[in-house]
């Protein structure tokens, strides 16, 4: 099977995290189960904070990035568990869930995650989901609006001049 | 696939050296069987540059395209050298602890018909003649038993077959004929480096490239998509499959069998190789020929030799000297990348299109023996599409992240550098008996160690790269090097060439000192690496020369 190299890197990074964090990656509750409604709402809201809609291009969920992330998680228990832990963390307060917060509140929470300890779940969840979401998002030509690229490099290439 | 004719020679490995020796042998009338452990890629099917999600795909990796390998525990990273740590703007320091780590498998290569030329960017370099006499002239490393003059006619032949495009002259390397094709136009990123370099007194010029600047030999000219490393789908890049193998197969005298792993050798009492065994689709086969050529690279070739232990050869095949696996030399690499707001479209053009040879001679860097070269590396470093920018050169998230991608895209400029690597006792290949492949053959294990001299070269490359980008008014966004990552694309030295059978594995004709009909034509025979030159052209020149020797000595007997 040909495995996308970025997916290999993703899986390796997630695996290293669980090893470093001392989490049991073979625990019984580790399953490749479909995400719950709460989890899908949480991740969709999270990736739209990472990649919101603007005047040029759509948001992460506009481009189905959230669905593609869940699809990736179908074949990786580690990644699936990271998503579960991350979504659980986003929903850990007594108040409204992350997806019910205002955009400003969500932004503030994600900003905190981006600055938190590298070896703890919030930061690792932020980093890995950010990396994955951006890779999936910018793999779609409709997100290239405003860039000096509009089609894949082949078959036309980029004949000179380039200035 | 059945053999059409009884082979006169068996070549193991279809990369740069295997393809070149096979071409030359069949060109002179011999029948050759080529056994390749990897598969045969179909560029139009397997390479993804025409797909919308092209940037998520590197060169295709399959189980057979990667040789088995392990990496022994690597060096601790001294805090005094943390200025050489890899980092980028998005993720900060990439290695979070204090131990050097392999990047992926550490040995970055391709098994397949074409070998690592399938994913190389295609620099086509001749060695600096001074780098071939390091022991005599500088008292370090090892001398080559041949000199540049001996190799020059074979360089010419390889360049013609490939269709190398290059400038009229290159410092330090005389030529008896011009390059077959004119040089490629310089990309905007290369132009920025040329300008900044000239302001600093550096001399940059067009690089010599195994990519066609004009249609040549039935292949089209490059269309400058900038993604040679992901596999060239149009065939202008001079990888071994579309050059040497294509021409060799056209003679009807080359049989290529892919997905065939060699596992053993039968050796006669007089030292000759009688036959070898290989596994294809789970079945073991034996095949014999008057000549056997190994060209599996400087990691897998010593693995094959060390694995072939017997009562009569306790150290393995071709290893009476004990030098098989020793003298492992790797790629000493640095790259700095910056954003220059005044340039645009740096994702367009040929990778590695400009080069600076100023520091290539062994005595060019103060305080250390062994030189280096600098080159334009924007597209080799992968700043080819928006994913690279979004995940490496931007910070944060949200709308400001998207704005950063739009501001930066097409404005990354990278300078890369590769240096001489001298052999040291702690860098070698042995067998990892704890890990065996499906055929029961132990994995090769790479031991890598950087000496203080290597660190000195790395620091010189880093400081010069930073100075160059500063002069170009760039804002640094990423640096990557082999101080903290073991990431070797070029591997050398593990079956060293020499005149003394007690201190080398093959002679100057690439012939085993121990087995007269066994030859090795990959970079494992290199006594030294050169000052950062890409090795494929030298491998091919050596292989063509070895083929001529084989024809002269063996074909007449058979």
UniProtKB/TrEMBL annotation, chain A:
<protein>
    <submittedName>
        <fullName>Uncharacterized protein</fullName>
    </submittedName>
</protein>
<dbReference type="Pfam" id="PF13618">
    <property type="entry name" value="Gluconate_2-dh3"/>
</dbReference>
<dbReference type="InterPro" id="IPR027056">
    <property type="entry name" value="Gluconate_2DH_su3"/>
</dbReference>
TrEMBL record, chain B:
<dbReference type="GO" id="GO:0050660">
    <property type="term" value="F:flavin adenine dinucleotide binding"/>
</dbReference>
<dbReference type="InterPro" id="IPR036188">
    <property type="entry name" value="FAD/NAD-bd_sf"/>
</dbReference>
<dbReference type="Pfam" id="PF05199">
    <property type="entry name" value="GMC_oxred_C"/>
</dbReference>
<keyword id="KW-0560">Oxidoreductase</keyword>
<feature type="domain" description="Glucose-methanol-choline oxidoreductase N-terminal">
    <location>
        <begin position="187"/>
        <end position="328"/>
    </location>
</feature>
<keyword id="KW-0285">Flavoprotein</keyword>
<dbReference type="Pfam" id="PF00732">
    <property type="entry name" value="GMC_oxred_N"/>
</dbReference>
<feature type="domain" description="Glucose-methanol-choline oxidoreductase C-terminal">
    <location>
        <begin position="423"/>
        <end position="543"/>
    </location>
</feature>
<comment type="similarity">
    <text>Belongs to the GMC oxidoreductase family.</text>
</comment>
<protein>
    <submittedName>
        <fullName>GMC oxidoreductase family</fullName>
    </submittedName>
</protein>
<dbReference type="InterPro" id="IPR007867">
    <property type="entry name" value="GMC_OxRtase_C"/>
</dbReference>
<keyword id="KW-0274">FAD</keyword>
<dbReference type="Pfam" id="PF13450">
    <property type="entry name" value="NAD_binding_8"/>
</dbReference>
<dbReference type="GO" id="GO:0016614">
    <property type="term" value="F:oxidoreductase activity, acting on CH-OH group of donors"/>
</dbReference>
<dbReference type="InterPro" id="IPR000172">
    <property type="entry name" value="GMC_OxRdtase_N"/>
</dbReference>
């Amino acid at each position: 099977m040909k495995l996308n190299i970025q997916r290999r890197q993703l899986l390796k990074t997630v695996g290293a995290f669980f090893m470093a964090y001392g989490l049991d990656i073979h625990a019984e509750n580790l399953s490749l189960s479909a995400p719950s409604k709460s989890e899908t709402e949480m991740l969709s809201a999270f990736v739209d904070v990472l990649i919101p809609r603007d005047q040029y291009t759509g948001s992460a969920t506009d481009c189905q990035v959230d669905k593609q992330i869940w699809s990736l998680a179908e074949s990786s228990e580690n990644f699936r568990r990271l998503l579960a832990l991350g979504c659980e963390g986003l929903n850990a307060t007594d108040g409204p869930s992350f997806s019910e917060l205002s955009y400003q509140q969500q932004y503030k929470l994600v900003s905190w995650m981006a600055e938190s300890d590298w070896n703890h779940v919030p930061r690792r969840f932020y980093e890995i989901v950010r990396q994955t979401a951006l890779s999936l998002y910018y793999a779609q030509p409709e997100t290239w609006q405003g860039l000096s690229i509009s089609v894949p490099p082949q078959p036309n290439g980029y004949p000179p001049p380039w200035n | 696939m059945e053999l059409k004719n009884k082979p006169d020679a068996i070549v193991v490995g279809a990369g740069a050296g295997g393809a070149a020796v096979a071409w030359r042998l069949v060109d002179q009338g011999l029948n050759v069987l080529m056994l390749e452990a990897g598969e045969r890629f179909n560029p139009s099917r397997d390479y993804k540059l025409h797909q919308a999600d092209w940037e998520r795909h590197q060169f295709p990796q399959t189980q057979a395209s990667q040789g088995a390998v392990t990496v022994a525990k690597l060096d601790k990273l001294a805090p005094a050298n943390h200025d050489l740590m890899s980092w980028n703007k998005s993720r900060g320091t990439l290695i979070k602890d204090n131990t050097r780590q392999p990047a992926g498998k550490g040995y970055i290569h391709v098994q397949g018909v074409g070998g690592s030329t399938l994913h190389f960017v295609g620099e086509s370099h001749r060695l600096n003649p001074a780098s071939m006499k390091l022991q005599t002239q500088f008292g370090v490393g090892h001398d080559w038993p041949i000199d540049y003059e001996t190799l020059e006619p074979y360089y010419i032949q390889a360049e013609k077959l490939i269709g190398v495009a290059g400038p009229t002259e290159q410092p330090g390397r005389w030529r008896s004929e011009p390059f077959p094709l004119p040089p490629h136009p310089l990309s905007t990123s290369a132009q920025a480096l040329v300008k900044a370099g000239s302001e600093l007194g550096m001399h940059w010029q067009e690089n010599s490239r195994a990519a066609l600047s004009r249609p040549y030999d039935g292949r089209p000219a490059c269309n400058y998509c900038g993604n040679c490393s992901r596999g060239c789908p149009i065939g202008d890049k001079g990888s071994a499959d579309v050059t040497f193998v294509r021409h060799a197969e056209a003679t009807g005298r080359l049989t290529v069998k892919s997905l065939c792993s060699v596992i053993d050798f039968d050796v006669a009492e007089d030292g000759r190789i009688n036959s070898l065994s290989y596994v294809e689709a789970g079945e073991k086969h034996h095949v014999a020929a008057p000549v056997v050529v190994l060209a599996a690279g400087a990691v897998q070739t010593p693995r094959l030799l060390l694995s072939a232990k017997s009562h009569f050869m306790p150290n393995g095949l071709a290893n009476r000297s004990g030098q098989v696996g020793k003298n492992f030399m790797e790629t000493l690499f640095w790259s700095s990348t910056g954003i220059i707001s005044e340039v645009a479209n740096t994702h367009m053009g040929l990778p590695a299109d400009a080069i600076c040879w100023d520091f290539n001679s062994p005595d060019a860097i103060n305080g250390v023996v062994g030189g280096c070269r600098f080159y334009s590396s924007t597209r080799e470093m992968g700043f080819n599409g928006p994913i690279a920018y979004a995940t490496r050169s931007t910070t944060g998230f949200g709308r400001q992240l998207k704005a950063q991608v739009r501001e930066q895209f097409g404005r990354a400029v990278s300078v890369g550098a590769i240096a001489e690597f001298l052999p040291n006792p702690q860098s070698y290949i042995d067998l990892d008996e704890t890990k065996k492949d499906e055929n029961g053959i132990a994995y090769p294990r790479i031991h890598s160690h950087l000496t203080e001299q290597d660190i000195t070269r790395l620091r010189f490359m880093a400081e010069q790269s930073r100075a160059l980008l500063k002069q170009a008014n760039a804002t640094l966004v990423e640096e990557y090097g082999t101080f903290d990552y073991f990431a070797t694309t070029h591997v050398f030295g593990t079956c060293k060439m020499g005149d003394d059978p007690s201190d080398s594995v093959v002679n100057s004709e690439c012939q085993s000192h121990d087995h007269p009909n066994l030859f090795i034509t990959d970079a494992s025979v290199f006594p030294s690496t050169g000052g950062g030159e890409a090795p494929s052209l030298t491998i091919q020149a050596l292989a063509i020369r070895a083929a001529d020797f084989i024809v002269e000595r063996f074909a007449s007997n058979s």
